[in-house]
Records
---
Amino acid sequence: MRAPRISIVILLCATALLPCRWSEAAAPTMAIRFGKLVDGAGKVLTNAIVIVEGDRIKSVGTGSSSIPTGAEIVDLRRYTGIPGLIDVHTHMTYYWDQSPGTRPWAQLGSRVPSMSMFLAQENARKTLETGVTTVRNLHAPEYTDIAMRDLIKMGAMTGPRMFVSGYGLHVASPSSRGGAPTPSRGQANGVDEVARAAREQIAAGADWVKMFGSTGSAQDVSGNQTYTFDEMKAAVETAHKLRKRIAIHSYGPAGARDAVRAGTDSVEHATDMDDATIADMVSRKTFYVPTIDHNRYYAEYRNQFGYGPEVADRLQDYVSRNLETARRAFKAGVRFAMGSDAVFTMFGQNTRELGWFLKAGMTPEQALAAATTNGAALLGMENSLGSVLPGYYADLVAVEGDPLSDINVVINNVRWVMKGGVVVVDKTKSRKTQ
Ligand SMILES: [Zn+2]
C-alpha cells in the first residue's frame, strides 16, 4: 500500500530536480469506508465514510454521503473503525536485539544511546501495529526521544506521533537509568536543582517533564518516596510556568500523595494509594496511569531479564495491588489514561492494559475512552487527537469485530492503521481505486 506513493516521491525528485524531502507527496483525497465507526465522541455510525485530505479528516458521514470525484476509496466495510489509540507511557528507545547470552538492561547500558534509538524503529513499528498512533515517552537518555520524535515528524522514520520528556528527573543514584551515562542530566537534588533540570529538558525541546518521585523500576517494586513535596512542587511550577505538563512516577502511596498535592498532571504506577489521595485526584482531575500490565510483562518474560521465580512472585503481588488500587480509583471517579510502560520486547503489547481496565470495572467503551479521548485530554490535544471528527488528525484504526462488546477486539484484531492520513499498517487486501 505504501510502495506506490514512495515511488511517486522518487519520480518527482528525479524529474523535477528539486531538493528531495523525506515527507511523502501530498496524498490525494481518500474516502475510507467502515462497516461501523466508533467515533470516540459518543457516536456509532453504520456504513461510515471518512473523507481524509492531507493529514486531516475533512468530513465524517454515512453511506448516503457523496464521495468526492477522483477520491481514492479504501473499502474497510468488513471492519469497525476507531480513533488512533494513545499510549501515554512508553520507553520507545529501550531496545534489545535478543542475541543469545545478552540481557536487555545490560545491553542497553553498553550501547551508545543514539544506536539504541535507531534500532528502536522496530519498537515504533510494533507500536503502530497495535493501533497506537500517538505515544507519550517518559524518559530517554541523550535526547534520543526528541530526535526520534522529530525524525518521525519529518517522515524519515515510521512510528507513532511522539510527545517526549527528555531525561526524567531523578535523585542521585548509583545506577544509570535507561542507558544514560551516570550522573545523567536528569539528576537533580533539592528545589533549585529540580527547577534547573526541568527547565533544561524543556529548553532542549521536551514536551513534558517526567519526575521519578519514588524508587521502583524493573525487578524493584519498592515504592520509597525519593523527592519531597517541595521538590515536586518546584518541578510542577517550573513545567506549568513554561506551559508544559508533568508526569510523576511513584510506585508507592507516599510519593503519589505528594505528587497529587503538588499539582502533577498525571500520576504513574501508584499502588496502594489511600482514599484521601484518590479523592484529591478526583477533585483536581489528576490523571491516573496505573501501567498494571507492565509488571505482568516482567513476570511473564522474566527469563529474558534473568529474574528468578521469587522476583516474579514479587512482581505479581505488585500487579494485584496495582489492580486493586485502580479498581478503587475508578469507582471513586478518577480519570484514567492508558499507559503500557512498554520497554524492550513489550512493544506490540501496548494495549494489553485495556484488559486490566475491564478487570478494574470499566466497560469496553470506557476502556476505549481511556486510550483515546482521555489520552488526548492528558496531552492537551483534545481538539485534534482521540476522536474521528472533522479537522482532527486522520488517525484511524480498523478492527475486526465489535470493540464495544469485547475489548479483545481492540487488543488482538487490529487490521489496518492510518496515521496522519498515511496508511502505516495494512493486513487487509480489500483496497480498490475508483
Ligand atoms: Zn516508565
---
Amino acid sequence: MRSLLPIVLVAATSFSQTQSVTQPGSAAPITIHADRILDGRGNVIAGGTVVVQGGKITRVDKAPTGTATYDLKGYTLMPGLIDAHSHLTWYFNREGRYHTRADGDTPVQSMLSTAANAYATLMAGFTTIQSPGSPEDKDLRDWIALGQIPGPRVLTSLNAFNSTRPTPDTLRAQVRQRKAEGADVIKIFASASIRDGGTQTLSDEQLKAICGEAKAQGLRTMVHAHSAASIKASVLAGCDQIEHGVYADEESLKLMSEHGVFFDPQICLVFRNYLDNRAKYDGIGNYNEAGFAAMEKAIPIATAGFTRAIHTPGLKVIFGTDAVAGAHGRNAEELVCRVQDGKQSPIDAITSATSLGAAALRMGDQIGSIAPGLQADLVAVKGDPTKDITAMRNVMFVMKGGRVYRNDK
Ligand SMILES: [Zn+2]
C-alpha cells in the first residue's frame, strides 16, 4: 500500500492535465443510473444513482436522481471486482505453447502479452488484482497507475519465497530486501504444487521467519499451501492469507478462522483452464500425465472443500482465481462455479470479490465498496447477477478511478 498511494496520486495529476470532461480531475460530476446497485457489502439498492467526481464516489442515492451521464437501464452496477491471485505474466507464445524463459521470447515481447492480459482482465470487470511471484509486475503496476496502459490496479509480491535452503536470518533479510524493491505483499510457497502432492516444503521455523519479519515491516503475506499441515504451520507462523488449500480439513479451516486469516481457494477456472489447454502446457515441467491427472482429481475435492470453508463460522473466504495463461479475462468463471458447484449465494460470491477482497488487501477504505469517498471503480453487468450469477460474464461497463474504460451500451 505504501508504494501504491503515491502512484495513485501521480495518476490523478496526469489525468487532470490530459483527459476530457468526464475524466478524473474534472470538476463536472458523472451521474450513473442503474436498475440495481450492489454496494459490495451485501446490500442491494433498487433503481439507485451513483455520483462520481474527481475520480471518487461522492454520492449514492436510493432513487434515480439528476440527469444521467450513463443510464444503465437493464443493468446491475457494483464495485470493480478484485482478484486476489492472478498471474498476468503467464501467456501462450507464438507457437501456441505456454511461455517459459527458454522459448526465446524477449522481455519486450513478454511484456506485450502481459499488457494484453491486463487489458483483458480490466475489460472483464476486474479493476484490482494481486499478482504473486513476478518481478516484471512492478513496471506493469507503475505504468498502469500512470494511466499509460489500460489495466487493473496491480499489487505485486515481485519474486516469491520458494527455496527451502535459506536460514531464518537470511529469509528475514530477504523480506526487507523485497520491501525495499517495492513489493506490496510477500508470497510464500509453504507446500509443493498440487501436481506434486501439495505437502509442506518450508519448515515451521522458516515460515515464522518470513511471516514474522513481514509483519514487523508492515507487509502482508500470502501463502501457497495445499496440505492441512502446511496450512496449519502457516497460520501458526502468523501469515495473513492462505492460497489454494485443496487439502484443508475441518481443523485447518477452523484455525484460519480463529486467527482471522483470509482463505483464497479455487475450485474450477484454474484447473479447467489447464485441462482445456492441455496441449499448450503438456511436457513443460510438472505439466505431465501425472500432473494433469492430479488436477482433474482435485476439482471435486476443492469444490467440497470450498463448500466446507464457506460454512466455517467466521472464516473470511475471498475471491482469487490463480488465473494463468488462457484464463485472463475469464476470471468471473470462478464466480459462476463457486455459486453453481460450490453452493455459495450469488451475493456472497460478489462480496468475496469486492469488500472482503479489499479488506484482505487492507484497502477497504479505498476500493471494494460503493460508498462516498472511495475510488470510483464501478462495473455493470447485463441482468441481475443476484438471481443468475452467469450475468457476471456479461460485463458491459467498466470505470476505474472515475475513468471509463468500457461502455458497450
Ligand atoms: Zn498462483
